[in-house]
Design a protein that fits this description.
By secondary structure, the chain is mainly beta. It has a single domain (about 1-30, about 45-165), classed as Jelly Rolls. The chain has one helix spanning about 1-20; strands at about 50-55, 60-65, 70, 75-85, 90, 95, 100-105, 105-115, 115-120, 125, 130, 140, 150-155, 165.
């Protein structure tokens, strides 16, 4: 039992570290294991189909003080997705906390809260990583003329519940 819990904890930690490592801005030379495509062929030539992987994870705690801590006290689901978004606004929804890595395109996140009203994030470009708490209605807004492709890791999803909850009616933004 402890081996399974340790494996799941290592998997979630690995996903977080992978997203953080992708943020290095290309300052280090890639190794053979870093490359998805030969160096003469850019990553954008690769067909990036959407996917969703979902699994239940036991309570965990990752503590790397003073800079990092993430924990979950109950069993919950974790979801990893690659999503292809068309230009323009996406659907309003709520979700749990998540990390997003932009592979292709440009997008911003629009949010609504009763306290702050409508807000927008800066524009995120290919290679950018950002986190969202997901506790307010939000939506992606693709500002590039091409599709945006993102990798998303979602945490703290009650077991078996929907990944996204549509917000109807849409906020007055």
């Amino acid at each position: 039992m402890h081996r399974i819990q340790l494996s799941k904890t290592l998997a979630i930690g690995g996903a977080i570290l992978l997203l953080a490592a992708c943020r290095d801005g290309g300052t280090s030379a890639p190794t053979a294991t870093d490359r998805i495509a030969p160096p003469e062929r850019p990553l954008m030539d690769v067909i990036l189909d959407p996917f969703t992987y979902r699994a239940t994870i036991d309570p965990y705690r990752i503590l790397r003080l003073p800079d990092f801590m993430i924990q979950q006290h109950t069993r919950s689901d974790i979801v990893m997705q690659r999503i292809v978004l068309k230009p323009g606004p996406g659907a309003w929804h709520t979700t749990g906390p998540h990390f997003i890595y932009v592979i292709q395109g440009q997008l911003k996140r629009q949010e609504f809260s009763d306290k702050e009203g409508c807000t927008e994030s800066p524009v995120y470009n290919a290679g950018d990583v950002f986190a969202a708490e997901g506790d307010h209605p939000g939506r992606p807004f693709v500002v590039s003329s091409q599709d945006a492709v993102v990798l998303v890791t979602r945490f703290n999803i009650p077991i078996g519940s929907p990944i996204l909850i549509p917000v109807v009616p849409a906020p007055p933004c």
